[in-house]
Amino acid sequence: MSNSFDPTHLVSEFLQAIGPNLDQIPPPFDLPERGRCPTIPLSFGLLGKLAQLSEVEEAVTNRFIARHEEIIQEFTSRGLSNSTARDATLRQLWLEEEQERSTTRERWYCGLSVEERYAFNRQCLTRSGPLFAQLIPEGIPSHQHGACARLALEVAELARRHRKRRSAIETSLYDRGLARRTVSSGDVKHVNDNKQPILSGALKRADDDKENAISRLIERWWREMSHDEPTTSKPMPPSEAPPPSEFPEWDDTERVLRFRGQECKRFKKTAPHQVKVLNAFQEEGWPNAISDPLPKGKLAKTIESLNMRLQHIKFSLNGAADGILWQPL
């Protein structure tokens, strides 16, 4: 695919074109239902894999819903329901859920055969309708139109989730009496009717999260395109080719942590808590975050030690301090 192609511009045009019809655009990974939207026949094998993905995503969604309720109850019981820490923790939870959903989908798509990926992309192109086909730039080979449609449908789905989240933030702040207030020198003060600093700030952060999520989605899409190389007429531009591995690798035998083919840290001394964290990540396939696998009270110090002399990636506590995140540097 030509390095002059800008998928960001394409999906932006698509979102602008569908406008108020956003809710009518079907999600790309839903099982096709007769009469619900345009569809093409899929093999029983691919339908089965879509069903498996649906079950995994439902479990992820339910887990994060439960965690959302736990966070609200926790801050309420501590008398901190109006604190900015509560909102920051919920924001972090949303980011974690988006990352886990994206990782799950990338693994699912890259695990398909070439034929299954092509059929799935054709399904996405059919679902996106004739409007999307008119937006695809000239010069993009026809066999890549389906991949572009897959990206557009997933961005539209993300936009719907963002709109729902934005509405929930606004409702929550008004219900708690915070929408028309601002924080100044540690005090919460009323502001005039024309300004809503807390509300506007929260919505601005949500909008930024959405744009960052779309950027990460496009980066993921480029990686997925590399798996479609047998069906593409041109290789991906070197500047956009995926790295050797997008996930760290922990070798418990050699006691070496690697990322993208580079050594991050080598353990020469015993470090049982750090090793337990790395083993937990390795066993779970390096999701964006895992629950605390250590005895109570050991996590923060272990992460601090794990980050010492660590290269290429870093670890951190999640917002509730009961789990571990990793991210590339």
From TrEMBL:
It comes from Gemmata palustris. It comes from the Bacteria. Residues 225-250 are annotated as: Disordered. This is DUF1376 domain-containing protein. Residues 235-246 have a biased composition (Pro residues).
